[in-house]
Design goal:
The protein has 463 residues and is of the alpha/beta class. It contains 15 helices and 14 strands. Helix 4 packs across helix 5. The N and C termini lie far apart (71 Å).
């Protein structure tokens, strides 16, 4: 058998010396200390499998040292499922690096990113996702275009983007429907003659499209190109379509060797995980579907800056509520219903089981989600906002669902439930906040919210 002390020493061997201070031990008088030591010597505890071996025929196949290392590695992976926290102190970083290296030597496991059993159920994300771990991620067709996108959007304070990867796409509906004098894009109100206005429009409104689409071929043949006047950036000629700058993505049907291949989560990766797709200066990333126009982009950005109107608080994400229309002539009608795909149905069932256990104190549960994700605003500032996005992205990816709306609905309401519970326990009661705001778990004193707004007057859809 192995004594508790031996197990403790084995575990402590994976941490750097002096990681834990002995100062936390209570101070005892000499007589108390002597009695305490005699009691410790009189009591010994051992971990042994002899009884299970004699009764059940069980015989341990894994040495204690390897088992402890694997156990620590399991908890270590789940303590930081979305990579390193950017807010860790130098001492925490040093200890974490020591632990990782020690566990890697002890376990000697190199898991395939597709082997969920070897990974103990941990997800492996695309390398370009802000949720990935550098040592355990998979490349994707997004890698090259993300690098170009970061260069193009360098210097932007906010970016608006859309995704249209259909190979038969001939136009982006919002580009064909916008008014040049409207406020529907980044840089609206700035003169096209002025270099700042011209560059802002061209570099801060990005459309990710298929390289093989008729749209890209047509615009190239028509010479609808933009060359940045700032030659120091060495940007290539960029395709223009309305207010959008098109960044073509190579064939997405092949070469996407990933556990999420063919899923919504990989095809629409920037939508839920935009942190590594834009320049470091970008504070807000606005996603819109190709058929959606925002009525007033400057007003949306102002709302994000102002936050919840409460002191020391920020908005992490903004979305619209689903328009519950039953007008058969309205393309947004939610009256018709079709049987969901298998993964979507299972996801909804599991989410509803959690809702029942929490006595219905979560958003959703209806046939259609309450959140419409055709419009999303992300704040790219802070570690807590990144963790929220990764929670949503992980939920959508692991279910393999055909949409992100169930995942958004569930994770945002779960964060709200946890934050309200935390406020109740710490303050003796939950403070009243605006009904459109949902709380987000925060590791700091700053209050973080997501805001769900009515689509009326905010967005317009075009067929």
């Amino acid at each position: 058998g192995s004594s508790i002390k031996q197990i403790r020493n084995e575990m402590m061997g994976h941490f750097p010396p002096n990681s834990f201070s002995d100062k936390a031990q209570p101070i005892r008088s000499s007589s108390t200390k002597q009695r305490y030591n005699s009691q410790r010597q009189a009591t010994k505890a051992y971990a042994s499998t002899e009884l299970s071996n004699s009764l059940l025929g069980f015989k341990a196949q894994i040495p204690m040292s390897v088992g402890i290392a694997k156990t620590l590695a399991w908890f270590r992976n789940r303590s930081a499922p979305f990579g390193k926290d950017s807010n860790v102190t130098p001492q925490q970083k040093r200890i974490g690096s020591f632990v990782d290296n020690s566990l890697a030597k002890a376990t000697k496991e190199e898991c395939s990113p597709f082997d969920r059993e070897c990974l103990y159920g941990a997800s492996v994300f695309p390398c370009v996702s802000e949720c990935s771990k550098a040592k355990n991620c998979t490349p994707s067709a997004w890698d090259d275009v993300a690098s170009l996108s970061r260069s193009v959007t360098s210097g932007c304070d906010a970016v608006m983007f859309t995704i249209l990867l259909d190979k038969d796409a001939e136009q982006i509906p919002s580009a064909a429907s916008f008014n040049a004098s409207s406020l529907s894009f980044i840089g609206a109100g700035l003169s096209e003659i002025d270099d700042v206005g011209k560059q802002t429009r061209a570099r801060c409104n990005i459309a990710f499209v298929s390289e093989d689409s008729p749209l890209v071929r047509r615009l190239r043949s028509e010479g609808k190109m933009y060359t940045d006047g700032n030659g120091s950036n060495e940007l290539p000629e960029m395709i223009r379509h309305g207010f959008w700058t098109l960044l073509p993505l190579k064939d997405t049907s092949s070469g996407w060797m990933h556990a999420f291949s063919g899923s919504f989560a990989l095809r629409y990766l920037p939508k839920l995980s935009p942190g590594h797709f834009f320049g470091s200066s970008v504070r807000y990333a606005i996603f819109v579907e190709p058929s959606v126009l925002i009525s007033d982009v400057p007003e949306i950005l102002k709302q994000m800056d102002v936050g919840s109107m409460e002191q020391n608080s920020v908005i992490a994400m903004m979305a619209t509520e689903r328009c519950q229309s039953c007008d058969a002539s309205d393309h947004r009608s939610t009256c018709t219903w079709a049987r969901p795909k298998s993964n979507d149905s299972i996801q909804r069932t599991m989410h509803n089981m959690v809702r029942v256990s929490l006595k219905g104190d979560l958003l959703g549960g209806e046939i259609t989600p309450v959140i419409d994700s055709s419009f999303l605003v992300h704040s790219l500032q802070g570690e807590d906002t990144r963790m929220l996005r990764c929670d949503v992205y992980s939920e959508a990816a692991q279910w393999g669902s055909s949409s992100d709306e169930r995942s958004l609905e569930f994770i945002l309401s779960l964060h709200d439930f946890w934050s309200r519970a935390g406020n109740h326990w710490s303050n003796g009661g939950s403070a009243e906040i605006e009904s459109s705001l949902l709380g987000v778990l925060s590791s700091s004193d700053t209050q973080i919210f997501t805001q769900i707004v009515s689509p009326e007057g905010v967005i317009t859809r075009y067929k």
